[in-house]
Amino acid sequence: MQIINARLRQKPELFTLHIENGHFTKIEKQDGTLADTSLNDDINADGNLVCAPFVEPHIHLDAALTAGEPEWNQSGTLFEGIERWSQRKPMLNEADIRKRALSTIELLVQNGVQAIRTHADTTDPTLIGVRTLCALRDELKDKIDLQVVAFPQDGMLSYPSGLKLMEEALEIGADVVGGIPHFEYTRELGEKSVKLIIELAKKYDRLVDVHCDEIDDPNSRFLEFLACEALFHDMGDKVTASHTTAMHSYDNAYCSKLFRLLKNSGINFISCPTESIHLQGRFDTYPKRRGVTRVKELREANINVCLGQDSIFDPWYSLGNGKLLRTLDFAMHICQMMGYKDYESALDMITDNSAKTMCLENYGIKIGNPANFILLEGFDDYSVLRKQGEVLLSVRHGEIIMQRQPAQVISKPWISTI
Ligand code: FE2
User: Fold this and answer.
1) Could you confirm whether 214 is annotated as catalytic?
2) Suppose 129 and one of 109, 120, 291, 416 were both cysteines; which one would form an S-S bond, judging by CB atoms 3.0 to 4.6 Å apart?
3) Of 167, 214, 229, 275, catalytic
4) Tens of pLDDT along 216-248?
5) What is 2-52+364-403's CATH superfamily?
6) Which InterPro entries match (predicted)?
7) pTM reported for the whole predicted model
8) 139 within 8 A of 173, measured Cβ to Cβ
9) How far is the CA of 403 from the centre of ligand 1 (A)?
10) Ligand 1 centroid to 71 CA: how many Å?
């Protein structure tokens, strides 16, 4: 298989990508545009951007597609979301979770995603979410990279047997240890939970991804504790802080000090801008905080930061369509990243940076890597972002898994005659 007339990120020329046995074997610079070849499985990219697949590093597949069941989150707060989810949890069963998770995965794949990190709630004595999503991960292992986070939604130490359930989830096979220190009853319990998360990650050799300081409270400072633990245990590249929305409200002098630790620790960040702009700032009158972590500043400090959707039609967020380009568009606006330099590498936040966060191996368009890629409408990061076009093609191990015809617009004469 060959992909001709392809643009690659940060390169102005056209390329031909050669694929054999599901791997990239040659990437050749072209001398101008090539005509269609006669080989059946060749693809003409037509000057569009061939990009590494999108990565969804933060979503809750166990809760997806449950908005309004049995009641809607009317206040729009994160805490009412947790209450509504508590009402939905007793209705969970394997078939229910499996059906909704598969529909959501399909939606994500249709929009160019080939790797997903999902959280699975462990504060449920049956652990049905963890069991179902781990089984689905194993079943889909040749089709998609799926990681499961053992996530204690109601607290690891504040929920009865929360710690025991967390350990059981890791025994079942969850890939990542999660946490929610800002939701534990006290600061002491929150700090203790972070220590336990790191201990469990070391004991079971797992990654870490903590819902960290997802609150507008400027005194919620578990991030420094998490980063410090990661630094002292030399495991920063395996540790992720999700949300960190309190950082939006931190005093600037404190933040300046904090960034030194964050940089030294090497931890990763995930921001979910659509979710945070919706859930945070709910206790403010006016002015209302945006409640999104400092994505621009993290990028400028060369700290790894990526973007996730968090929810699709669930008790916390009742919109969402699986399109990470939409999430990226929101982030660029909300975090005021609209200088030309911001645009040039914008796609990093839904591709390479997310792959680094998930510790994905053999990711990217390189000779020898599996031929996993997507085709995007546009010729560079900026044009793809501005156009907000559809993903035209998704190829995994050299096989087409999704193809879409570009929309046709038929212009009417009243414009062309002006
Ligand atoms: Fe989340």
Assistant:
1) yes
2) 120
3) 214
4) 999 999 999 999 999 999 999 999 999 999 999
5) Urease, subunit C, domain 1 (2.30.40.10)
6) Amidohydro_3 (IPR013108), Metal-dep_hydrolase_composite (IPR011059), Metal_Hydrolase (IPR032466), Metallo-hydrolase_Enzymes (IPR052349)
7) 0.96
8) no
9) 30
10) 20
